[in-house]
Every structure is written in structure tokens, then in C-alpha cells.
Amino acid sequence: MTARHYHWWKHGVLYQIYPRSFADSSGDGTGDLRGLFSRLPYLADLGIDGLWLSPIFDSPMRDFGYDVRDYCAIHPLFGSLDDFDELVDRSHRLGIRIILDLVFNHTSDEHPWFIESRASKDSPRRDWYLWHGGRRLAGLPWRICRRPPNNWRAAFGGSAWTLDESSDEYYLHLFLESQPDLNWRNRDTERAMFEQARFWLDRGVDGFRLDVINYIVKDRQLRNNPYHLRWTFPRRHDQQLHRYDRNQPEAHEILRRFRALMDRYSETMLVGEVYPNEGRMEPEASASYLGNGSDELHLAFDFSLMETRFTGRAYRRTLERWYSAIPPDGWPTHVLSNHDKPRAMTRRCRGSLAKARVLAALLLTQRGTPFLYYGEEIGMRDGKLRRDSLRDPTGRKYWPFFTGRDRSRTPMQWNSGPNAGFCPPDVDPWLPLNTDYAGSGKAGGVNVEAGEADPDSLLNWYRRLIEVRRKRCELTHGSISFVGTHRKLLVYTRAHEERQVIVMLNFSGRERPAPPAGIPAASARILLSTHGDAPEARPEAPLRPYEARLVSAEGPANAEASARHGSGTR
Ligand code: GLC
User: Fold this and answer.
1) What would the pLDDT profile of 510-540 be if each residue is shown by its tens digit?
2) Could you tell me the residue range of the domain that residue 324 belongs to?
3) Which of 206, 273, 296, 392 is catalytic?
4) 446 & 494 share domain
């Protein structure tokens, strides 16, 4: 495989950092850019090709940076523009790309655009946001019976419309009241936002993660969303089909224009966060934002993998549906955890390292770009937080029915010393650390230092998988074909030219015979296994409990394999 054929965003491994929680250098208990500098060698050793940083822009932090006050300034908590330039420079020297998190759908209510917009109905920027006088209940006086224009609910609770008393109209906010939605039908808004993106591209960033990108355009007539009967108490937002407040066709046109801008900068990438209209995940909705495969997003998140039950059959079903949805020239991406959801280690693996190894192998041997979430590689679990430590607005609002997103955002666990090496010993971290960082026993607690010291740790398993992935272009470039259907096993072949890697995953705590169809040639040998890679081990031996085994073979792919996804030539 030549460098020309290795595209960082397509064939590499990407890693999400929640900057508040990664490494604190200033000693205020919150992670920052200079803290991240010192950890770049760790990420380079792990084999990471790109970092997605959750927002670091200036913000009042009501939604921890997803409420932007100035898109072209770094929040002082994280450092300065000079620090950022240094981060780009240092990362690039280590072969690591930088992706920023751009929030297109809304700004903070403290953004100068909104301040100007709300100043009066005649403001030149009034139309940059979505304003409406509201509706009146039939026959009743306006003053007492004024209602928002429609039934849309905000994701973080309540109506999505708030009445601005001083200018006497409602404005739309699909999240917090302090996150007003921009009007993307106004081309001046679009131009201004693209200008903010260009500011970062000119500073050398390699791409953007686009926050809730399919929400940016709303129904022109502001029609009511249909009700959707579901038990989602107390979150009424999920009791609607979001037919009119997201996924409008104009969003694709905007993305095509943004892609054209991105394409003027070489080797840049866009990955979008897409949620379907219903609560259930629909990979087809995410895939539609890849356009024809080269004119909208480069990558789109599909969160179905996060919601899949821990069985081979369930994963196969999810993955095949996702692959089938991808346009012929599009490229899939895979993710198990992020800053909005419970960590897979807690949700799917229930703390079991054996299960986490199987999921790591699944993530890193699929066709498409894998995203890791900080700490996933050491087996970080969700923290147990008391009510008075909660910071996330959704957790504070809905406690105890829903405890919010803080639990998957606790500080990175670097070592077993005070504050896990995240911040100085005498400082309180912004969120309490998960106490498991300091554990005892052979492998010590859940932290990077303990992982590095133990050859059998999850961290070293991740490193080995990433190394094999980088060396074997079957895993980065090859097609994928699933073999056989077993409830507890998942077996697939990654083939490129005349070589294959066969991946066998045992999702159960019992030994299972390896499916004969999975082992094609006499040349087969074990490349890697969770249970050790003894040279004499036979590729076709029964799979041990929760074993993940990668077998290398020469010759054409097995005839019994099911539909092949991807040509294996990219
Ligand atoms: C996205 C972000 C989430 C944020 C929301 C509003 O879903 O991932 O963290 O709260 O958008 O910006």
C-alpha cells in the first residue's frame, strides 16, 4: 500500500477528545490545549491518525461549548489561538490530523449575531434566526392566549420556542433556550458561517465534525410534528416524529456548497452527526448525507452500532443494513461511544474486559473509518456521579429519571496517582473522576500507566489491532463479506487482491466451534487472538469464550460468503 492510497480519514483511526476532560496543564481542574500537547506522543504510539476535538471556541458554556459565542476565538479555559496553532503544528509533525467541531444549527444567545437579531424586529440581522409572532387560540384575546407557532419540542425540554418579551416575538431553539437556531434559508447567514470555517481551514485544520447537521433547515411552513406514542417520560421531545424540524431537502444543497468550499483545501474531511426522524436509528438517514459519495459529507455517523445487542447475529444485521445504505462511492464510519451516550464499556460490556476486547476487534476490523472515544482504549467506564456533581443541563433537569451525559465525560485516567494524573493533586477536577482509576490487583486500576505495564491489557490489545490494521490493507481497503449466520458468532472476511483476513468473534462465554466455511486455505495462520498467538495454534480450532481471532489467508475469498460490500480495490 503506497502513501498515495492511504487517506488519513478513510483508512486511518480517528479519536474523539472531550477537551475539558483530557489533560489539565493550567491547574484549574479543566483540560486544555497545552495539556493535550504533552499527551500527543501517547496518541501517536496508539496509532491514531486524526483527533476530533469537541468545541473549544469561546462560549458561555451552558452546553459545554456547543453554544458558541465566537467561532473564531478559543475559550480562555482551553488556551489561546497561539496554543491552537502550536497544537496543529505539533500534531501534524506526528502525522495526526485535527478536526474541529462546528456547530452550524445554532449559536449561543450571547453571540453578537443574536444580540443584534433580537434587538428589534427591524434589525438587519433579524432574519438570521427564526422568529415568529406566534398563534392565537380561536376567538380568545391575544394577550392571554398567545401560543408558540407550532408544537415543536426542544431536545433539552419544553417548547422549542421562547417568547422574547422585548421584541415581542418567539425565537426557535431546538436545544436550550440559550441556543437560538440560525436561519439557513438566508444566504447571508450561510456566507457568514462558511467564513468562520474558512478561518480555521486557513490555519491548517484538516476537517470538521458538523454538529446535528441534519437539523439546520426547518419546514418553511412550520407545520406541527406528528405525535409518536412512546414511553419516553419525562422527555416529550421523543414523543414526536421530527418530520418538520429536521431532514429538510435544502440541507443537502447547503452541504454541497460547503463541500465545494472544503474541496479547495487538500485532504480535508467532513463528518456529520445525523439523527433520524424517529427515536429508532435509521442508517439510511445518515447515508443520505453522503450524497452521491463525493458531493456532501465524507463521513456520516450512524449510531445503530451503539444500540445493538451483544450478539453476533444482531451486529451482523446492523452492519449489513449500514453497508447496504452507503452509496457506491461513499465510505462508512463506525462508532461505539461518544460524549452524548453511555460508554460501550458500561452499556454493552457491563464492565467486562473480555467483552470489550471483542468489541474493539469488531470496531477496528470493519470496512470504514473507526472512531474511538477517549479512554475507550483503557476500558474507562461511566462514572457514578451524585446529583450535586452533575453539570450537564439535561441531567440537572431530568434527574433522577435521566442522569444526563456527565457520566461518560469524566476525566481521562492517566495513572493511579492523585486525580489520576489528569490535574494537580490539590485541585478539584471539573467532574469527579471515576474511582476505578486507582484499583488494585495484577493489572492495577483502569488507567494508561497500568495498561502500558501489562502486556495483556485492553490498551495493548487496541495497539496490536491498530498495528495489524495499518499493516494489512485487507483491513483498510478490502471488501467485507459475512460468513454463515450464528447467534453468538460473527465471522467475516476482509479481502483485497488475492489476500484475506478472516475475523472470528465469539460473543458468548462458551467455547464454540469455528464455522468451517470461515477457514479457506491451507496457508491460513493466526494473525492475532485475544487468547494469545502461539505459532502452532490452529486457525480452525474452536473459539474460546469471548475470543476474537484474526486469521490471514491467501487465495480467493470463500464461495459460501454472503453479499460482498465494497469492491476491495479502494
Ligand atoms: C450535539 C452534540 C451535543 C450537544 C447538541 C447541541 O448532539 O453532540 O453534545 O449538546 O448537539 O449542540
Assistant:
1) 999 988 665 666 788 999 999 986 667 889 9
2) 3-108+186-219+246-390+442-462
3) 273
4) no
